[in-house]
Design a protein that fits this description.
- It is a single chain.
- Helices cover 43% and strands 18% of the residues.
- It has a 7-stranded parallel beta sheet with strand order 3-2-1-4-5-6-7, with helices on both faces.
- The chain is of the alpha/beta class and 251 residues long.
- It has a single domain, classed as NAD(P)-binding Rossmann-like Domain (Rossmann fold, 3-Layer(aba) Sandwich).
- The protein is globular.
- The N and C termini lie far apart (57 Å).
């Protein structure tokens, strides 16, 4: 009988070893999971969020390099944060802000403006702050959605932003090259934000998606985070929008 020799499998080289990843909105949900996966790939992670207490817990949980509590939609606070960063950095991901739903008669214009500030204007302010601070080949990653691509009552504000952000992404990719700009468009993701929006309907929505989505399960933060890390590491990708919705748009 001849003894077989098992060859050791090659060790996985951490894809973000020695790189610096900033996650804006990183205290929970998609942002926190992206930070966790980036840490697992060897990155130093800097977290930001609005809640100092929640941010401190998140930073301790994943072993973040540092954290800063501020409102990212405030241009002055955002500029001050970037001025204080050790440079250069490699990647910035923004998950701050949530969708605003209201019919025309019920729109709170202060809330609607806040929605635009947290997505459209934040994207532009952050892109300008990134100049000279993000390494060539690094990336800025932003979040959008997919469900508001079809007209529906109550989606006027979020639909307009859903349509605008891919165009803004493509244009910024040209202006900031060789820094890369990409947009992740997510469908329903099972996060604390989703729970707060749906309330008592959360379990019903989960069951509906498990029964109807082609993937047969609900999309979670880890699914989006895996895409985010891939976009950080694949330096051929820029100026594009990447959907992660479990096939929800096909229904």
């Amino acid at each position: 009988m001849t003894a077989t020799t098992t060859k050791p499998s090659p060790q996985h080289e951490p894809a973000l070893q020695g790189q610096v990843v900033v996650v804006i909105g990183g205290s929970a949900g998609i942002g926190l999971e992206t930070a966790r996966q980036a840490r697992a790939e060897g990155a130093q992670v800097i977290l930001t969020g609005r809640s100092a207490a929640r941010l401190e817990r998140a930073a301790r949980e994943i072993g973040a390099h540092s954290s800063a509590a501020f409102d990212a939609a405030d241009p002055e606070h955002l500029a001050r944060f970037f001025e204080d960063l050790p440079t250069p950095i490699d990647h910035v991901m923004v998950t701050a802000g949530g969708p605003y739903y209201a019919r025309l008669a019920d729109i709170d214009f202060a809330e609607a403006r806040r929605e635009v500030d947290e997505h459209f204007w934040l994207m532009l302010h952050l892109a300008r702050e990134a100049v000279g601070r993000v390494r060539p080949g690094g990336t800025l990653l932003f979040m959008s959605g997919t469900h508001a691509r079809r007209p529906e009552l109550g989606l006027a504000v979020v639909s307009a932003l859903t349509a605008a952000l891919p165009a803004l992404t493509a244009n910024l990719a040209l202006e900031l090259a060789p820094v890369r700009i990409n947009l992740i468009a997510a469908g329903f993701v099972d996060t604390p934000l989703s729970a707060s929006l749906l309330g008592d309907r959360l379990d019903e929505r989960r069951d509906e998606l498990r029964a109807t989505l082609p993937i047969g399960r609900v999309v979670g933060p880890a699914d989006v985070a895996a895409l985010a890390v891939h976009l950080m590491t694949n330096t051929a990708l820029t100026g594009a929008t990447y959907d992660v919705d479990g096939g929800q748009q096909l229904l």
